[in-house]
Amino acid sequence: MKLLYTKRSPFARKVRVVALEKNIALDLIDEDLQQKSRRLLDANPLGKVPTLILDNGTAVFDSSVICQYLDGLHDKALMIPRESLGRMEVLKWEAFADDLVVCAINLYMEKVRHPDDFHKDWTAALEANVRRAFAFIESNLHQLQTFNLASVAVASSLGYIHLRLPHLKEQGDAAQWFEIISKRPSMAQTVPVV
Ligand SMILES: N[C@@H](CCC(=O)N[C@@H](CS)C(=O)NCC(=O)O)C(=O)O
After folding, report:
1. So what's the pLDDT on residue 171?
2. pTM of the entire structure?
3. 50 C-alpha vs ligand 1 centroid, how far in Å?
4. What does the pLDDT look like over 119-175, one tens digit per residue?
5. What is the mean pLDDT of the chain?
6. What domains can you pick out in the chain, each with its CATH number?
7. From the centroid of its chain, how far is CA 11?
8. Whose CA is nearest to atom 10 of ligand 1?
9. Residue 113 pLDDT more than 90?
10. Is the preceding peptide bond at 62 cis, omega within 30 degrees of 0?
């Protein structure tokens, strides 16, 4: 299987961690998102990473679908519970973490594109979302003590925020939690780089 990805994508990081934990070999293909390859655009008309290409040519996206697909390949190192309530809770955390990172990406991009003229109300609202999300993580850390797709997704989002918006990063117990989870070999191997 081929994974079209970038080293900085928090969405691709989830997929890489799930594959490492489950010992599933992926052929990693680094994409240039400024000049998307024909292979990426043929596989995914929106040209997003991560996109997984199965050995039979089937393209799989987005990151949540890819993680669910990989986790379903075998039962070792389960990343998403099979029973309904536990599964819903983990996928809910993943959706939350993905939306948090979308806020962070929008905030970063707006300030990079318009450094002197960024939309003040919009960026303030995004920053407020990020701060509320941190408070939510802090008060629900007990739900993130198992290493599964929920904790991987939250840690991947925080990792992206460390990279792009270090002035905003989490504090307190969440910071300690992040430090510990970051030491896991699959997380340490996938730290985002530009
Ligand atoms: N919902 C998608 C989001 C993927 C996404 O937005 N990836 C970004 C990189 S972090 C991307 O491909 N951006 C390029 C573009 O949108 O043109 C997922 O979970 O896979």
Report:
1. 87
2. 0.97
3. 7
4. 999 999 999 999 999 999 999 999 999 999 999 999 999 999 999 999 998 889 999
5. 97
6. 2-73 (3.40.30.10), 84-188 (1.20.1050.10)
7. 3
8. 9
9. yes
10. yes
Protein residue with its CA nearest to atom 19 in ligand 1: 63
Q: Name all residues whose Cβ lies below 6 A of ligand 1.
A: 9, 11, 33, 47-50, 61-64, 98
HEC readout, the chain:
CEEEECCCCHHHHHHHHHHHHHCCCCEEEECCCCCCCHHHHHHCCCCCCCEEECCCCCEECCHHHHHHHHHHHCCCCCCCCCCHHHHHHHHHHHHHHHHHHHHHHHHHHHHHHCCCCCCHHHHHHHHHHHHHHHHHHHHCHHHHCCCCHHHHHHHHHHHHHHHHCHHHCCCHHHHHHHHHHHCCHHHHCCCCCC
The whole-number pLDDT of residue 84 equals 98
Average pLDDT over residues 16-26: 98
